[in-house]
Each structure stands twice: as C-alpha cells, then as structure tokens.
Amino acid sequence: MQGFLNGCANAIGADHVVTDEALMLPFLTDYRQRFTGRALAVVKPSTTEEVAAIVKLCNLHHVPLVPQGGNTGLVLGSIPDESGKAIVLSLNRLNRIRELDAANNTLTAEAGCILDHIHSAATDAERLFPLSLPSSGTCTIGGNLSANAGGTAVLRYGTARELCLGLEVVTGEGGIWNGLRGLRKDNTGYDLRDLFIGAEGTLGVMTAAVLKLYPLPKAKLTAIAAMTTPDKALDLLNIAQRYCGTSLTAFELVSRYAMELVLKHFPALSAPLPLTYGQYALIELSDSESEDHAADMLETFLEYAIEEDVIRDAAVAQSIAQSQSMWQLRENISAAQAMEGKNIKHDIALPTSSVSDFIAKTDQLLQAHFPGCRMVTFGHLGDGSLHYNVSAPPGVPVEAFMDCTPEINRIVYDSVASFNGTISAEHGLGALKREELVRYKPPIEIDMMKRIKAAFDPNHVMNPGKILI
Amino acid sequence: MQGFLNGCANAIGADHVVTDEALMLPFLTDYRQRFTGRALAVVKPSTTEEVAAIVKLCNLHHVPLVPQGGNTGLVLGSIPDESGKAIVLSLNRLNRIRELDAANNTLTAEAGCILDHIHSAATDAERLFPLSLPSSGTCTIGGNLSANAGGTAVLRYGTARELCLGLEVVTGEGGIWNGLRGLRKDNTGYDLRDLFIGAEGTLGVMTAAVLKLYPLPKAKLTAIAAMTTPDKALDLLNIAQRYCGTSLTAFELVSRYAMELVLKHFPALSAPLPLTYGQYALIELSDSESEDHAADMLETFLEYAIEEDVIRDAAVAQSIAQSQSMWQLRENISAAQAMEGKNIKHDIALPTSSVSDFIAKTDQLLQAHFPGCRMVTFGHLGDGSLHYNVSAPPGVPVEAFMDCTPEINRIVYDSVASFNGTISAEHGLGALKREELVRYKPPIEIDMMKRIKAAFDPNHVMNPGKILI
C-alpha cells in the first residue's frame, strides 16, 4: 500500500495524507460515538482535480474510499468499516463559495462548505438558503446533498434535493463531470443530479453544487399550540395550510414527554404553555409582506382552531428572543434524550393522513410487548416525518432495554411498512440500515439499485457497504 | 412476427392489438404533423400487468416498443421511426384515478389519465394539481412525467418532476416496480423515481404515479404590464418576487411581435394595453387569503414598478372573463405562429440573470446573418425559459427560410451554450435533438447516460433512438 500512499502524497502533498492514528481518530468515529472504524489514511484534497487524482489512484490500487464532510451523519455512512483497507476522503478543504448570482437566485458552493457559511453568504446578499438543520455549524453541503438532508424547512422549501440545481461530481472512476447548471428547467436527458443526491457517496464524490436561493422573508413569527392527540395536530396542520398557504414554513410536533425531557435537562428554558396537554405543535410563519400581516394571519387561524376545539391553548412569541427559546425547546430534544440516556431511535415518515393512526397503533403494540416504555415522539409533522424514539420503562436498566433493539425495530418498521411509510425519512441508510433495506424494499427495486451501482462504480471503490450490502 | 402479435392478442385481447394502417395513423404521426412513422401494431393494454406482459413479449421477440400517451410531444419522442419494426404501446386505456387522499394531499393516477381529468378530480376535493399546459385536454400524466413537462406554473410549483412523489413502472424487461409512495421524505436508496421521470420512455414504462396536491387558492388575479426591453421585465420579476413571495404563480414574457401575431389571427381577442411597447409580461398571483388582499399586493408592486420606471403601463383584469382573455393572448401564440406559417423553434432556458443579455446578443447575431428575420420570443421568464422562435424576414419565402434551420439552430444553440443554458428547457430531446445532445453535453455525461440505458434496457427494446443515438 506504500505505492498507493506515495501516489496520494504526490498528487496532493504529503501534509494532506494523514496516517497518524491519533490524528485520524475524529474522522473514524461517528457523530453519536457508537462506532470507530479503521483506515489506511485520511486524505484531504483541496480541489476537484485533486479529488479526481485520488479516486483514480483508488481505482488503480483497488483501495476503497469513504467520502466525508462534517461527519455529522447518523447512519454510519461517512466512516469506514473496521477492516482498515479504506481511506477516508475528507472534503473539508474544498470549502470555497465559488459564485453567488443574486439575480438568478443561485449560489455555487464546494462540497466542504459548512452549511452556516452558506447561510451567511446568502444573507449578505439579502437571500435565504432555507436548509435548516441542528448541525448547521458543522455539517457540509456535500454531506447534506449526499444524504438528501431534510430538517425543519422541508414543508415549505423541500429537502436538500429540491434545493439543488446542479452538481460537479468526480465519478466512481475518477472522471470529472461538470453539471453545475443554474437552470430551473432543463430536460436534456437522464436526471444524473438526483441520482448522486441521496446516494451517500456510493456512486461518486460530489465536489460542488449550484444551490437555490430565495428572497429573505420580511417577517418570521413563531408560536406553540397545545392539543390532546396527534390527530388534532394534523387537523391544525390542515387549517394552517388553508389559512397561510406557503407562509407556513415549519410545523413540528413535540410530545409531552419530549417537552418534559428538554425542560428537565435544560433548566434555563421554560415552557410557554402548561405541561398538561398530550401534544404540542411548534409553528413558524414567514411572510413576504410585514410582521403585522403575519401576526394577523397567525392569530386568525389559531383563534379559529381554538373555537373549533382543535387546540386547547396557544402562545405566540412576542420577540425574537421568545421565538428563539421556543425553537430551543425543539432543537434540544436530541441533546436532552442523550443526557437522559440511550434510547432506540427511528427516523420514519408516513403519509400525513396516516401519522395519527400509526402512532396510536404502534404505541399500543410497543406497550403490549414492553409495558411502560416511554415514547419520545417528535418531528416534522408537516412532512409526515417523525423521530419515533423509545426509552426504557421506569426502573428498567437502559443497557438491558437497548438489547431489545432488534425486536423493537421489527415492531416499529413492520408497522411503518403496513402504513406505506419509510424506515428512513431523512438520515439515509449508511451501514446502519442496509439490512433493513433488503427486508422492506421489493427485490426489483434493490436489483435496479445494484445495476446502477455496478454501472457507476465498476471497481467497487465507492463507499462500499453503504446503502447496499 | 405473427408469433409475437398472437402473443400480444393472447395477453390483452385481439381487439386491442391494432394493425390496420388507417386506424394506426393517428398513433404514428406527431403532434405538429411533421413526421409519420411506421409500426408493426398499436398495442393497447388496460392494466399494469398487461403492460408487463407486452414488454416481456417485446424482450422475447426483440421487438422495440414506443410508449405513447396523448401523443402531444413536440420532439418526436412518442412516435416510432420509419422502419416499421416497433410497436406503439398506447397507455390510453390505463386511465383510472386510483386514489385521492385529501389529508395527505396526494392523488394516484394511472399513466393514461388525461391531465384535465386530474385537474377536475383535484378540484372536486378542493385541491389544486398545478401542472398547467395548453394541451391539458389531450396530454396524459404519463407523458407529462416522461417528458418532465413544464408549463406556466413552474415558477411557483416546479416541473412535473417536482409534482410527483411516487411511481409504478414496468421495467425494461417487463418486471413491475411498485414505487407508489406518497411520502414527502424518503431517503432509502437511489432516486429511481427521478431517473424514470424525464427519461422519455427509454428506461421503462410508467404505469401510475402519486401526485402532489395543494390547497386551492382563495383568489387568482391576472395582469399585463408593458415595458421597453427584456431586462426591464427581469427587473419587474425581481420586484414581484420581493413583494409577493410565492403568491406569484406565473410570470410570462410576450414580445410585441408575438402579441401582434395573436391579435392578427385571433381577431376576437383585444390588447389590454397599446401595442407600442417592446415587451409585455403576463402576471398571475394566487392568494390563500382573499381577492382584496391579492389586489392590494398586485397594485402596490405595479405602482412601485411604474414609479421606478421599470414598466410603462399595466392593466389588471377586473373579472374572470378579462383574466381569461389575457391568458388567451399568451396561450394562442403557438397557434397564431402556425397560422402565420412555419418558423424555426427553440425551447431553451438560461440562468434568469442571463436572459436579457442572451436575447440581445442572439437577436443581433441572427440579424447579422439573416437581416430582417422576425423574433417570436415568449415564454416562462420566471424560470428563465424561452420559446425563442425565428420567422422569415418579410418577403422571404417560408420554405426557403426553413432550409436555413441547421444554420440558425447552430447560432442559437451556440449562444445558449455560451450562457450556460440548455437546448431543451421543457420539451425533451426525443428523436429531434439527440444529435444536438452529443454536441452540447460533455462526453462523460453521455457516457453515464449510456451506462444507465444499458443497465435498464439490456435488450434495446425501450423507445430506441430517443434521447441517445
């Protein structure tokens, strides 16, 4: 392998081929610290041409590569396995914003650009890049696109896929494809862009992307509403969509237990409504007119929802500070769960019309098998997307409960499948869910994926073992 | 071939295997009546299973098939070549709306459903299916998706691609893939859906789709504004987006000559503004609140645009009838062109920031080579998408001018390429532009397309000669 490593050093400079175990460690351990893989080296090119040179070397020497951005993925997609045969291809040095075309509402960023930097560049040009994720200070746009990230603004603006107009990709054999088109319409052949998006680095390495920008809204308003059950939250969603159209930019569900966990572990935060209701909805409106207009719209539909007995109470943020603290209640759920101890997580989505029935049925099934287990249910209800997490019953040791993961996964995923849902709404498959994929996808779909994989990565070097077994 | 035809008759009934030349003719001639191909038969299955049976027979007997919906395509994509070796696979009998899930805002339609029938079903459920095309009384959703149709509502709702959540497809070898998922988020592997969308029937046969619905807007308002030049129209677009956000649902450019042509050939229509300006913009707002709210918004930004000298005049429709006649001015441009005589058409798109420079530069190039030629320039300016059509100079015989098509195409497409635009914004490639594709796409992109084609259609039966040579 020394010949390969020398080749890498010649191509991009010895300083950027890291083989020191301690220096490699952060690149080998996943975000949730569940797994540490091994690698031949961490290789850090700084240009598209350098990426192409490394991919060619990998093909020549049959060395697998694992593309990595901010390494914030949740499905073990951006770290290598324990064989130690692969390299990590870090895109962090490809971090330039190449162009901002305000009149075309586009920004061209390299794969290693941190999401928050893209937000800032857009804001400086009085534009909005709407992708909104808790990890935005660390995650990179290449990773966001490779995983087709979701987040809290999907209801209005779509997933990462829908925010991308064009790509530059180093192919599985080390060619460079310049597909950096900033066009809203382009019907010239097969949609290669959307094939690379969401492929988790198994078909090629994204090196840059043309992203869609939007006008900055003139006002943003946040509110929290309380209701008894998830079906009431769905009724509220329907009313909100009718009254507010696309001004509705976020609609998040938070169960009471999720809210309690945040308040327990983040004592500086306070609940804007009494903790006596079953469910809470966090609502955001963005308005192109004025704050007054948005406030009128928000108050009108909340009043209507109270009159119709859809919600029991509501609080509208009266300041930016209040709005931020409402959002912190939502954004700190994951951290609060971690502080409380491990639980069994599911990143699922359903037709919105089935969310309520799914929760009722699945909660019941889980209680029947694991009496007293506690549900941390929250997520992007507007998209039918839920984080449906199961915590140990009071008194049951966490580690013993975690051993039930396979059984609990089976109950949850079988239920998801019975409602035509998905077992990965926004995190992807990585190495974590590739076996589940085979269970829940029809064989013909797996077969088509394998044909694409074989066509694009004939030498089996691109992030092997991810998505497909 | 009698064995093959008998097999088809056994699979779907002899009545649905048409070999009579006169009965086949409408299926063999393209929408613009430029070309008539030949076929072994027109085969009309009525279920997904029947489609699969036919595709299997085609594989077995090495008979190419040409999927066809409403046959309204503009690039010779849905008719066979003159060899007479292929069958036309008509999807017209797969025309059921299988499901409408109002709470999930989805509708599941079979490929042969006529677009207007889908509009009606959505409206009956107080929902909007926004795809808006002049051929909506004839075209089918399968064709719309296969060509990734655009139209006048893309600015707000996206192309056909963005309106589809899931597909059912008969693969190139006759398998059935049920990908009819009604999910807003689903990150479980490669994006097969978007690969079939826009593939013009060269990778598989779509048999059904899950479509996105939207709340019906409470009000729709139409206006026409007049300006001197296309760059002023782009300034107006920018103002409209700032003032109206997503309420702006259409922004169409119509050049004076295009307007004059419509008024000449449709004398019942009248111009809402004097014909003394260079360019006109047709604007539509959709509002989730009220007609008054939309009217305020529209008048405010038009007044601002007049004050800022962006536009010279504007007329707001005061009734549904007025609104319809404004739209008829736009929608009859194609018909008016046909009545005036043939011209050389280009379906292009550019970054919106380059549209004005493109028009100025390309108009000048064309005038230099073909003095006096007349430009019928119109289209979906909000998406950077133009119908950029060239008519003969006064006094030059149309047929002589049409002989200059290759030279004029070269000037236009080279100019498009120099601005990073596309030579097919919304009509696709079909058999008409496949040679151009090779000229303007990088070889690495063509190579990736060919790999996909080989992986999905190993026996070369799926709509051969379309998109790829």
Automatic annotation (TrEMBL), chains A, B:
Q: Please indicate if the UniProt record lists Flavoprotein as a keyword.
A: yes
Alphabetical list of InterPro entries matching this protein:
FAD-bd_oxidored_4_C, FAD-bd_PCMH, FAD-bd_PCMH-like_sf, FAD-bd_PCMH_sub1, FAD-bd_PCMH_sub2, FAD-linked_Oxase-like_C, FAD-oxidored/transferase_4, Oxid_FAD_bind_N
What keywords is this UniProt entry annotated with?
A: FAD, Flavoprotein
Single biological process term from Gene Ontology: respiratory electron transport chain
Q: GO: which molecular function terms?
A: catalytic activity; FAD binding
Q: Which family does it belong to?
A: Belongs to the FAD-binding oxidoreductase/transferase type 4 family.
Q: What is this protein called?
A: FAD-binding oxidoreductase
